Amino acid sequence: MLKQGSALDRYFKITERGSTYSREIRGGFATFFAMSYIVVLNPLILSGADSGGGTLGSAAVAATTAFVAGILTILMGAWAKHPFALATGLGVNAFVAVTVATHPGLTWPDMMGLVLLSGLTMLILVLTGFRTAVFKAVPDALKTAIVVGIGFFIALIGLVNAGFVRRIPDAAHTTVPLGLGVDDKLLGWPTLVFVVGLILTIALVVRKVRGAILIGIVVSTVLAAILEFTLHIGPSFDGKNVNPRGWSLVAPTISQWGAPDLSLIGKANPVGAFQHLGFIAAALLAFVILLSIFFDAMGTMVGLANEAGTVDEHGNIPNVDRVLQVDALGAIIGGGSSVSSNQIFVESGAGIGEGARTGLASIVTGLLFLVAMFFTPLINLVPFEAVAPALVVVGFMMVSQVGKIDWQDWGLGIPAFLTIALMPFTYSIANGLGAGFISYVLIRAFQGRAREVHPLMWVVAAAFVLFFGIGTIEEMFGVK
Description:
The protein is built from 21 helices and 4 strands. It is mostly helical. The chain has one domain (16-253, 278-476). The strands form 2 sheets. A two-stranded antiparallel ribbon has the order 1-4. Strands 2-3 form a two-stranded antiparallel ribbon.
């Protein structure tokens, strides 16, 4: 029986962090439901053929995605002791897929080999203390801006995933890029599920009901299943036909048991890209991957730790070295298993919003991913629309910290604003960080206060200049 003061309690510091076993378990479930879509989405993103016509295989990608996410999330919980869950990062996997599709001569093993090498480089930077030093060099105001920016970002993810906010296709660019629903109208039963779930979750949260976020997800899922099984709504896109009133990605279904296919593990080729593309082209691709996973994870970690209240009075995160080590392993193992780099998911905020404060929640989430590898009724039964309300509410919780920023100091206020704005507007944590870091060092220099800037911030800002200018650099070297 789990008791306060037990060895498990002391190891994870459950009582010390103001949590309970029930909160950790509920938080683990909430995080799993919030991010389980990656098992369905990753095979779709990595579904294309490489230059030789080879494919990874949807079944193998799905099973391996769940397996790797489960192992890394459990490792994060047991070793780093934080409620952070890991899975294939949506930014890196999209970059990998596009690169494979547009570079003649590049194969899936070649590209995954570059991800693996980026992870190894990252691990070296962590073990030498460089990555931790960069984290500590970031001003507190920018760390707060990162939290707020991720809050807006995670809320936008929820709104877009639910179909409440949608992209407007417009080749002439004559309209705003986003709009309300379909033609500024809220249509379809899935949107109703989101609205009902959001109202319910807000009501439960303001009433301080235990398990508010998880209850909201479960009730929304039940409503979604009833609607799908009676009205047969279907997905918004089934591979051929577009149905704007359908479910965003996952139409609630009950899956059948299937033995997991883990044949992709160990298929990456670390030297293939250098052989087929040449050293400069391959090195530039690896550099882009490295910067993306370096700063995405750091920003996400800062935001989640602040929301969980695990940051000390000096702005330090307990076991930060271990967190960064596991994150680096996420790129190594993810690339080596051909499912792309794994990183800390912002959706871990759903579990934190549920009360999770320790690594025990991550172990629960990781175990659920391992179960999903064999049998996935929970994954395919929970549509985006049922999880999106949790992300919107958690986004509010994170944005509420905006008052901690000193907006009167423009040397902090402008970089904070750019960080906050660009994360949701560009759908990238790394882009927001880059804009914030570059503007911070420049404005402090303009103010004659360059000496106040930590030397590592200049290094990081220079790296981001290269990151944003990678397209020009590729053209200079004739890389296509």
